[in-house]
From TrEMBL:
This is T9SS C-terminal target domain-containing protein. It comes from Seonamhaeicola sediminis. It comes from the Bacteria.
Amino acid sequence: MKKLNVLIWVLLFGTLNLFAQQEKGIIGATNWLNNWTDFQFDKQYYREPTQIITGNITKDTKLFKRDAYLLVGSVFVTNGATLYIEPGTVILGDYDSKASLTISKGSKIMAEGTETDPIIFSSNKSVKKAGDWGGLILLGDAPLNRFGNGSVANFHNNLQPENYVNTNYGGNNSEGSSGILKYVRIEYTGKRIKGAGYFNGLLLAGVGSKTVLENIMVTYSAGDAFEIWGGNITLSQAVSYRTSSNDFNFNYGTQCKLNNSLAIRSPYISSSEGSRCLKVLSYDKREDVDFSKNSTLVIANNITILNDTENLKEDIEKGLVKEGVFVGQNASLEMSKSVISGFNPAVILDDRISINQTNLEKIKFTDMYFNNCNGNIFTAYNSNNDDLENWYGNAAFFNVYSKSSNKETFIDIENQRRPDYRLRINKIIAINKPDVDED
């Protein structure tokens, strides 16, 4: 009987370990990427537009699946209007006019696609490339940490004077709603703007907590895929694929819960400035910030970020691979049950962050899986990371480290039609201590 009890405990412990491994990275009993995402970009074909959208939408309007739409110039939804979009509707952004769609503060978008009939924003060019058109902007009245409120006017060339008010964002309503984005794909965004950088795939500025943001895929953006400035949001099952700039960029006092989401980088697409999967900042310029307001806080659970490279060492030597996560001064990140695979290194902290207990308690990595990275956690411009390795390598954080290839780590990333980026079970040999002698 004693031997039987021991065997039962061994089997139970082994089963619990399997489930603990399965809980890291993106999760789901089935592959939630199926049906609504698209990783085969040479197979795309969208109908020619039958309707044109231009100017301001000032009253409730509905877009229908039976039509295809061409977005021309800077389009604003204003005057408290709501833009309704049927599942399966296709909206193409015009290349020549640097098209973009802005949901102004007080207005809403109700774009609720389905798993089998997603809503698609894409480029009108026959040969599509990153940066073909602007992107999608949602503006709300939730708080920022800046003095005063903000504006996105610099994204819009030749902006009509009456539209300047429609570019403002920020306020005191952390529970505001800008509507719903669910089962939505946003493709080939990030048009370059003279003197203002690039549009982003999806810019959320001052957006409140009652906005629904689920199952959104941004692909081939020349700017950031997801740019979040201030506000108080929950973003779930978001996918960034082969973005030139950052995948998820948080700034200006953002309060964000990022859940069960995926970022896939390519070493041959990232910008020369050094793009990250997660970039967590509280400000660009310290003098712009009201420190009596909340600093940026990102709580990221079950995130998978990976660098899609076949030869990590060679790509690092060519300068093509950077860190996966960057955390700036006075910003907080709580990242747990997540996978970081194939970066140089996994994480970099701003060199202005003093390495002490107070600061490290604001930057948490727990129950993590660090895989095949050229180093784990460093301070910028400092190759000695002993203090950080000792801190985050403590067994109390339940972090594990491995050197497996992406093919061995994830279930099926070579399936172009239906890839599966969930963590593979029973194929990982992990250790509880970081390898301090990494090349």
